[in-house]
Every structure is written in structure tokens, then in C-alpha cells.
Amino acid sequence: EDQVTQSPEALRLQEGESSSLNCSYTVSGLRGLFWYRQDPGKGPEFLFTLYSAGEEKEKERLKATLTKKESFLHITAPKPEDSATYLCAVPVSSNTGKLIFGQGTTLQVKP
Amino acid sequence: NAGVMQNPRHLVRRRGQEARLRCSPMKGHSHVYWYRQLPEEGLKFMVYLQKENIIDESGMPKERFSAEFPKEGPSILRIQQVVRGDSAAYFCASSIRLTGEVGGYTFGSGTRLTVV
Predict the structure, then answer these.
(1) Could you tell me what percent of chain B has a pLDDT over 90?
(2) How many Å apart are CA A20 and CA A11, to the nearest integer?
(3) Which of B97, B90, B104, B39 minimizes the C-alpha distance to B61?
(4) What percent of chain A lies above the pLDDT cut of 70?
(5) Taking 70 as the threshold, does the pLDDT of residue A13 lie above it?
(6) What pLDDT digit, counting tens, does each position of B51-88 carry?
(7) Would you call B100 and A87 a contact, using CB atoms and an 8 Å cutoff?
(8) Does A8 sit behind a cis peptide bond, omega within 30 degrees of 0 on the bond before it?
(9) How many angstroms separate the CA atoms of A105 and A23, rounded?
(10) C-beta atoms of B100 and A94 within 8 A
């Protein structure tokens, strides 16, 4: 069964304290892995797409990496405005665009 | 370029009433997806539509729920005879082509349905 698991569920960091979020996946044939950011009361905002093991993408303080079994979202020197829920998702079909989402990691960065 | 527009933002319905949620995709996007986010749960796929066609409705409950994306106008998610368990945030997303080809969707801000 296709599955996406994120850890930890919640993460509290001090401003400037770097850390990583994990996304483990089980799918039959990876067709990409997506990272989103979701702020309270809003829809998910697309961050990155990764397609193959070893691939890395960066955006400001965020860097996403991908292996054959999991992806990491590294946050370097976070700021309070990085506080949000981070979601990862994988497509389960090449014909329907259906995504399976993880439960998310809620990040809180304190000044 | 307006993003994905969903309305209403908040909707309150009494048990047994109908709820109609509307979604206007981004300009040029012909693929629409509906997801539901129940309290304390992750986003769950409901349905994928193209203009005038339902492509995948494997995530739709068998009864009371329907979706359409007409040739003209927004996509509509309809929930008949709502029950308390339907209370959730409903998100619409759109893309130019299938997700795997161009990356992630663009999501709207959602409709928060409360059934009282």
C-alpha cells in the first residue's frame, strides 16, 4: 500500500537553530516527491519537486533532498516566519495526478 | 494573475442541508483536484476533473458527494444532506497538466465547512 509518513509531528526550534524534517515514503514507482508549506487557515503552498535519488533543491533557508526511501527538508538558521506546517506528498498514479500526503510536521520557531 | 479562487471561505450548514463549494482554477489550468482535510488529519484526495469530465473519483464518498467541472464556470463540489462528520476544510487545486509533468499543484485557500 502506498504510504507517506512524516516525522516529527511537531518541532520547536529557537531562531537560528538548524534542523531537518523527515518524509518516508512507500510507493510502487516514484513519480516525484513534493514539499508544501501550509500556514494556518490557508491552502498548501508549493515549495519543491524532487524526481530522483540524490537530487537536491534549495530555496532561501530550505533545502530538500531525496533518497530511494525518504526525503529530508533541511532548515538552516530558521526565522520565526518559517513557522508553518510542512507537508510532503507523492503521486500514486501517472494518469490521475492523485497525491498521497503525509500528516505534516508543524514547525514553531521562537525568537 | 489570480490564483485558485475558492468560495465561500466559510460555510455553515445545518444537518440535512446541501453544501455547494466553488472553485475557479488559475487561468490556463484545465486540471482541477479536490482534497479534504479533516480535523487532526492530513489532506485526502477526493476527485480529479478536467473540463466536463471526471477522471478519478476514487476518493469520493459513495453517497451524497458529487463534483463537476462544466465547460463554462467554476468547478463545484456538492454535498447533499450534510452530517457533522462532513465538517472539514475542502481545498481545490489546479494545474496546467498532470502533476507529474509540471510539478506541484496550486492550491486555493479552501472552504471551511461547519455542520451544526
Answers:
(1) 76
(2) 10
(3) B90
(4) 98
(5) yes
(6) 899 999 999 999 999 999 999 999 999 999 999 999 99
(7) no
(8) yes
(9) 9
(10) yes
Question: Tens of pLDDT along A28-49?
Answer: 888 889 999 999 999 999 999 9
Chain B CA closest to residue A95: B98
Contact B56, A93 (CB under 8 A): yes
Give A13-18 contacts, CB < 8 A, sequence gap 24+.
Answer: A13/A75, A13/A78, A13/A107, A13/A108, A13/A109, A13/A110, A14/A109, A14/A110, A15/A77, A15/A78, A15/A79, A15/A80, A15/A109, A15/A110, A15/A111, A16/A77, A16/A78, A17/A77, A17/A78, A18/A74, A18/A75, A18/A76, A18/A77, A18/A78
A-B contacts at Cβ under 8 angstroms: 78
Residue B74 preceded by cis peptide, ω within 30: no
Residues of A in contact with B35 (CB under 8 A): 101
Residue B79: strand, helix, or coil: strand
**Cβ-proximal residues to A46 (8 Å cutoff; 6+ apart), any chain:** A34, A36, B103, B104, B105, B106, B107
Q: Torsions phi, psi of A73, nearest 5?
A: -115, 110
Chain A interface disruption, residue of B4, B43, B53, most A CBs within 10 A: B43
Which three cell numbers mark B91?
481545498
